[in-house]
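Structure first, sequence second, as always.
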């Protein structure tokens, strides 16, 4: 709501730009970075939710692999003799979720027009 009230949007309206042009050229570049961050955080949350549901036994059917089902059912039989069976799926899930969140944060840093000209540069 604050972006649509900025001076450059009002100037574009005064110049006679169409609504679609204002949305694509002025508003969308300003809201892309937060959308990317929210999307990647939600992807991580969905992955954790799926693992939790599979751990409880209500998720993906047993022939299909899932990190949550690896810790449940068959994995519980061997956890006392080989504790690595419990740690590896949880560690892999944490690394993947962390990686997705860091990817979203890096994309925000690259695409956010408010960060341009603040000393943040990509050097080849």
């Amino acid at each position: 709501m604050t972006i649509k009230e900025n001076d450059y949007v009002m100037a574009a309206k005064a110049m006679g730009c169409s609504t679609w042009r204002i949305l694509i050229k002025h508003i969308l570049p300003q809201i892309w970075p937060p959308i990317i961050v929210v999307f990647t955080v939600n992807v991580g949350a969905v992955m954790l939710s799926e693992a939790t549901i599979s751990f409880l036994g209500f998720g993906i059917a047993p022939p299909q692999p899932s990190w949550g089902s690896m810790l449940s059912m068959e994995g519980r039989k061997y956890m006392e003799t080989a504790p690595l069976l419990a740690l590896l799926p949880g560690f892999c899930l944490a690394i993947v979720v962390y990686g997705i969140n860091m990817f979203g944060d890096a994309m925000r840093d690259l695409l956010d027009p408010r960060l341009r000209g603040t000393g943040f540069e990509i050097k080849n």
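Margin note: The helical segments are 7-14, 19-56, 67-71, 74-78, 84-111.
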